[in-house]
Amino acid sequence: MKNYGHLFVGSLLFALLSGSASAQSSQPIDASSWYTQPGIIGTMVLAIIILIIFALISVARISKLLRTSEQINQKQLDNELQESIINLPSDEVDKLLEARKKGGQYKLKGDELSGLGPVQDKRGLVDKVTHNPDNPFVDEKKPGKINLQTDNRLIDLILAYLGAAAAWLVLGTLAGQYLGMKFVWPDIDHVAWLSFGRLRPVHTNTVFWGWASLAMIGLAYFVVSRTSNRKIYSYKWGWAAFYLINACVLLGNLALMNGINNGGGEYREYIWPIMSLFAIGLILTLMNFYKTIAYRNTKEIYVSNWFILGSLSWTIVLTVIGYLPFYQNGLGETVIQGYYMHQGVGMWFMTFTLGLVYYYLPSALNKPIYSYSLGVLAFWTQMLFYTLIGTHHFVFSPLPWWLQTVAIVFSGGMFIPVLASTINFLMTMRGSMKAIADSYVLPFLLVGVLFYFIGSAQGSFQAFRFTNYVWHFTDFNVAHSHLTMYGIICFLLWGSLYAIVPKLTRTEPNQLGVGMHFWFAFIGMIIYTFSLMIGGTEKGLSWIDQAPFMESVNLMAPYWVWRAVGGSLMFFSHLVFAWNLYRMTRGYIHLKRREKDKTSNKTVNKKEKDRYVQFS
Q1: Which residue, among 452, 453, 445, has the nearest Cα to 500 in the 3D structure?
Q2: What is the mean pLDDT of residues 523-534?
Q3: Domain that holds residue 72
Q4: In a domain, 239, yes or no
Q5: Is the domain of 363 the same as that of 479?
């Protein structure tokens, strides 16, 4: 009876959902009071939160600069005083000290501030003299004190992944920067392989599969090995996956620029023979991580490994589903596209990166994660809700109304894993503001965590029907994708990378370089996303008012200029990041070469000695 009861209740809910959805679908949408809609209000609140966060970080930075400048000036004054005392004759030094001593014993009468006489300090009332400070760009951070004893084979593998990832980031965002310029100067070129339709998928696929994927896997190799307390199962598999993924990105981009693609499927433009290289690389990586964790020397499986293994498993399945052709006809292809597109972002990048943060954040703070239970809750609710929200990209399409409703409802359910992880991370940071101010790692992680909540919540609001009605097909979607993939994924990856690479290479990054990287990326992202969110809203409202299409193009022109400005700042930060990574790894490479030379010299000397003994 229980089974029949569940079936009856499920059928009743389905009927009510379908009936209400059908009734709603026949009702026209009134856009006159668009600013009173829940999704719009929620997005406005999140935008205000972003501005408040930006203001707070800026105020904190300015206050830090002022305090640092005061310290610099005080040090300069101390040095000048010491030099002047050294240059004075001994009798004058005695007189000066005696006068200062008498002045310190003087007590105020209460009328010292009155009168028109010249300003003098005969009684030693002046405690400090300041001049206009020469403010630095960034303050000095505390270097990491822990050098991890790690297998050189693992270090080589991690640095190879991260180095290739940084190269793809620069190349991929170079293409994106050029595309942003095309919005300002549409006639900048007339070359087929530089056209928007070819370069745009080059940009997205390069930063997806080249930059973010390689960086995530490289950082995960350390997490899996460290939390399992054993060496990686197979370094050969790791290197094989490295070459396969890089070959996929290289061949895929060459194919795209020559007009060879998989059709209009977003993020799956690589043709299947090329994308299969990426899938094989993921299979090898999953097997490698699974074997390492299975043979771990610890009792529990740390929560980071749950996210990492879950993400790899889902993405392998996703890649197969996204490229199997026999059920992708008509609307079936649309359903698969929504599933593939959103799972690629949510189950691959987001889930994997969250697993990294569950290790690198507490490691950087030198404290345990606030709640292991919240981490498990976040993991399983992520697995539940994220798998059914892809269709919210196709609201008001010919897809079944009930399927669209399910995607919207599950998009709202995403607040559970988002809040679980956000609270877990922020509570882990609680009481550590001094550590955050003194670290070059934690500001990246803090911004990434805050944007994890803001970007994910904004995505849930954007899934509502009315917000889809206003923003779909506009530049607002571009802003949302950068709010999540850049504000969340990139900042969390950068923070994790700055946390581990100096410990592996024994080389700290340049302080000015890290500060420039953070601020140019952060400010550029704010300019980029806000300009497109405002412009995208105006464009959507103009379409609702049935204004001519060219009018929406003209009103977007100034916002595209700001998009190019923000993109330029972001791209410059990537160049600085690549240089920082090179500076951190250069010392390790030189050290390995010196050790290799010493080993070879010892071998040569031993051979010469043996020959001499034999000759004698």
Answers
A1: 445
A2: 95
A3: 44-76
A4: yes
A5: yes
